[in-house]
Every structure is written in C-alpha cells, then in structure tokens.
Amino acid sequence: MKGLLVVGLLSLAWLVTTVCQGVIQELSIRSSIARIHQARERKSQMEEEISNTKLKMGAIQAEINELKKSEAELNQQQVELAKSRDEAERGLLACRPEKKKGQQKKTQISGTLQELKGAQEAEKVKAQEDIQKLKQQLLDRDQAICAFVDKNKPEGMKLCS
User: Cβ(142)–Cβ(160) under 8 Å?
Assistant: First the structure.
C-alpha cells in the first residue's frame, strides 16, 4: 500500500507536471499565433507601402522623363539660338566694312557737295555782280544815248522815258 501511494503520488506529480507543461505550451502557442497575426498585418502594411512607393516612383520617373524631354528641347532651342546668333554676327561682320565704305563715300560726297555749294554760291554772287555791272553798263549806255537823242520825237520819247 505504501508502494501504491507512492506510485499514485508520482503519477499525480507526473500528471500535474504534464498539465503545467501543456498549459505553458498552449500559452506559448497562443503568443506565437498572435505574433504571426501581427507579422502578417505588418507584412500587408509594408506591401501596401511598397506598392504606393512604386506608384510614386513611377510618377516621379514620368516627371523625370518629361523634364528630360523639355531639357532636350531647351538644349535644341539653345543650339538653334546660338546658330542664329552666329549667323547674325557673321552678317554683321560682313556688313561693317560695307557700312564703313558707305560712310566714307557719304563723307566724301558730303565734302564734295559742300565744295560744290560753296562754288555755286561764289558763282551766284559773281553772276549777280556781273548782272549788276551789265545793268549799270546798260543804264550808262542808255544815258549816253539819251544825251544825244531828241526827246521831242516819238522814238526818242520811247527810248529815254
């Protein structure tokens, strides 16, 4: 009977130990399941964040492509503007000697014109002096003729009146 009591107590101790281990394992399994659910939720959140990030990256990449296209267009416009500026400068350089020649001709012609105007004025003054001299000579001649002409006759009246 003592043996039976010992065996019963040992069985009871073994049963309590087994039940305790079962409870501990059950709690461990429940906490593991809870952690697995949390990990799945975190995983789904991270997947959503990754997909959102990929969408944002796609949008940014599209913007980058558009900016690259605009940059290429601007570079093309810059090249075209540089070409047109170079052509304009070449045209300007080609026109400068012609402009200089034109200005020299203008200066030369202007000087010649001034000389001709001066000469014309001098000739005009000389011509007026000559005209005055000739008028005076005509008046003197007419006075000399009138001194000899009979003023009572009609021809003399016409001539000397």
Answer: yes
